[in-house]
Write a structure and sequence with these properties.
This protein is an alpha/beta fold. The protein is built from nine helices and 13 strands. It has helices at 18-22, 128-139, 151-163, 178-192, 218-245, 267-287, 305-314, 318-327, 337-348; strands spanning 3-4, 7-10, 27-30, 33-34, 51-52, 71-72, 119-123, 143-148, 167-172, 197-200, 249-254, 292-299, 359-362. Strands 9-8-7-10-11-12-13 form a seven-stranded parallel sheet, with helices on both faces. Helix 2 packs across helix 9, helix 4 (178-192) packs parallel to helix 5 (218-245) and helix 5 packs parallel to helix 6. Residues 1-101 have low confidence and may be disordered.
Length: 382
């Protein structure tokens, strides 16, 4: 088994955020890419665990727990990483490319109970953004159905949440199929009495799909469209009747900034994410009369193993690719799953009751930057 283990420390981060600019921030993490069928990408200070076949998303959004392409389940390290400039210092440096972490509620936090009695399904809910959303809604009092096909990661997360006093179940099902979506909805209804909220997180962007439309196999197109887009239709088809019976609901998709702008060699992925945003608008009209809100979130680059796989697919050096990606975000960092989960909590709550048919960019300001930025046109008339 061949291993490639790039390590790096970035000692400064250029940012328009004055808090970031005041400090020289050391960022350190380890990425391990394996060529084996069940390989891994554990972060520095993280415990390596069994992997799923979830493929990388180019701008870091939802996962599908497909078995075979390495996406690790990670747990928090017991020992914080030391300051690389002074190993004896008590000050620590993050073990992932993050500067100011976002926090989600803890299980058992009595102040976070706005989703008590709510039944939530998270597709691709075992790892990455999906795992972050599963944890966040469980912490906020919801009964969570984790849909994935990575049985080890899904069962582990469900056990972790229930062990902390939350209510959660894991359903092994493929979101790219009619049976998988229907069976997951049925399981949520059987266990929790219905469905109130769907987080359509599942998505794939296999490294092998980074080719133009001529070279993309028809099977790859169908797989990406089925999982990234058709699953949204199927989850609504089978869950909306239960939402109607319960007086309303919320459907939120993890779309992508690639649904708004694009890049080379992502024809199927770009089509799936553009279609996801369009479907959000359309279904919001159909189901408004039922008090069902439909929304999307467009993540920027999020710190998940899927992003590492995406960099592998584009042929970029992983170390440099992560540094360059952070620089494309005006906030000067890439995001964490918690950044997306916190927005999901808001959108699914009554505080967002007048929002439907729209999307929210959670991208560190990426989409605010014009394509001409940094070119001769940016210099004005000087």
């Amino acid at each position: 088994m061949q291993h490639v283990t790039p390590e790096f420390i970035r000692h400064s981060c250029e940012s328009r955020n004055p808090r970031v600019a005041r400090g020289r921030v050391a960022l350190r993490f380890t990425v391990r890419m394996r060529d084996a069928k069940r390989g891994g990408c554990p972060r520095q200070g993280k415990k390596e665990t069994p992997l799923s076949r979830s493929a990388g998303e180019g701008q870091g959004e939802g996962d599908r727990g497909d078995k075979g392409v390495g996406v690790p389940q990670t747990t928090k390290s017991q020992e914080p990483a030391k300051n690389p400039k002074n190993p004896n210092s008590d000050k620590t440096t993050p073990s992932s490319p993050i500067i100011y972490p976002s926090k989600t509620p803890n299980i058992g936090d009595q102040t976070m109970t706005q989703f008590d009695g709510k039944s939530v399904i998270v597709t691709g809910g075992a790892l990455g953004i999906g795992g972050g959303c599963s944890k966040a809604f469980a912490a906020a009092g919801a009964s969570v159905t984790i849909m994935d096909i990575d049985d080890e990661a899904g069962e582990s997360l469900a056990a972790e949440l229930t062990g902390q006093g939350a209510t959660a179940q894991y359903i092994s099902a493929d979101a790219g199929t009619i049976e998988g979506c229907r069976d997951t909805v049925d399981a949520a209804i059987d266990a929790y009495g219905g469905v109130d909220i769907i987080i359509n997180n599942v998505g794939i962007q296999p490294p092998s799909s980074y080719v133009d439309a001529v070279d993309l196999p028809e099977e790859a197109w169908e797989d990406i469209i089925n999982i990234n887009l058709r699953s949204r239709f199927l989850m609504a088809k089978y869950a909306v009747p239960s939402m109607r019976e319960r007086g309303g609901g919320v459907i939120i998709s993890v779309a992508s900034v690639q649904g708004l702008a694009s890049m080379p060699f992502v024809s199927a992925y770009a089509a799936s994410k553009g279609g996801d945003l369009s479907l959000t608008r359309q279904m919001s009209i159909d189901f408004a009369k039922d008090n069902i809100r439909v929304l999307s979130v467009n993540p920027g680059t999020i710190n998940t193993p899927m992003v590492w796989k995406a960099l592998e697919g584009t042929g970029d050096d992983i170390e440099q690719g992560l540094i360059d990606s952070a620089k494309t975000h005006p906030l000067g960092r890439i995001g964490e799953p918690e950044d997306i989960a916190n927005v999901m909590l808001f959108l699914a709550s009554d505080k967002a009751s007048f929002m439907t048919g729209s999307y929210v960019n959670v991208d560190g300001g990426m989409m605010a930057v014009g394509a001409w930025a940094g070119t001769v046109g940016a210099a004005g008339s000087d």
